[in-house]
């Protein structure tokens, strides 16, 4: 089965510019996540979608970051305007919806987009 | 979700078992223990998870102590390709993953 796809793999921009990342989850996965991973740290969740609705965006800096998943499949994450501290790897992940208390929450991650802000 | 404590780094000889510890002394009865790993320049990869019982799959074994306050991930025959950062995460089922610093495992020839 195909994995989570992300593009571009690398992006270099100057501060105050805009940038967008694209993610295509595993087919049939209703839940999609965007994470930010700063060098040397673990990934931090930015936003979670269930189909095309937002479940949790409490950690998303909404003054500059936005994300959408219009048809409940692909998703885009945008930063406008970018700051130096936004330099990081942006990871997309997806998982099946499961509500049973004994089930597990396996997320499949894409390769990430490495953003460098100069 | 319970907080976890892992050593920042460990070494292991190729072909030997790698035993990665995780302390989660504040775990509650319905929280699961998950392990993910992240190989350099890749996204995290699910390894294994458990609630109370020990678990084994094709990648690893998970040993959870009887009081559930700690666990150990075991890679039975470590290879160079197992060099990665290993994350131990404790969460309620359905909750979002919260990654800490993890353990950087270096497998040496």
Explain this structure.
Chain A contains no helices and eleven strands. Chain A has 118 residues and is mainly β. In chain A, the strands form two sheets. In chain A, strands 2, 4, 5, 6, 9, 10 and 11 form a seven-stranded mixed sheet that branches. Chain A has a four-stranded antiparallel sheet with strand order 1-3-8-7, with no helix packed on it. In chain A, a hairpin with a 6-residue loop joins strand 4 (31-37) and strand 5 (44-50). With 109 residues, chain B is mainly β. Chain B is built from no helices and nine strands. In chain B, strands 1-9-8-3-4 form a five-stranded mixed sheet, with no helix packed on it. The mean pLDDT of chain B is 92. The chains are: A mainly beta (118), B mainly beta (109). Chain A binds chain B through residues 4, 33, 41-45, 48, 56, 91, 93, 98-112, and chain B through 30, 32, 34, 41-46, 49, 51, 85, 87, 91, 93-102.
Quick take:
By secondary structure, chain A is an all-beta fold. In chain A, 0% of the residues lie in helices and 47% in strands.
Task: Please describe the topology of this protein.
The complex is a heterodimer of chains A (118) and B (109).
Chain A: E1 5-7, E2 10-13, E3 19-24, E4 31-37, E5 44-50, E6 53-56, E7 65-68, E8 75-79, E9 88-95, E10 108-109, E11 113-117
Parallel strand pairs in A: 2-11
Antiparallel strand pairs in A: 1-3, 3-8, 4-5, 4-9, 5-6, 7-8, 9-10, 9-11
Chain B: E1 9-13, E2 18-23, E3 31-38, E4 45-50, E5 55-56, E6 61-64, E7 70-75, E8 84-92, E9 103-108
Parallel strand pairs in B: 1-9
Antiparallel strand pairs in B: 2-7, 3-4, 3-8, 5-6, 6-7, 8-9
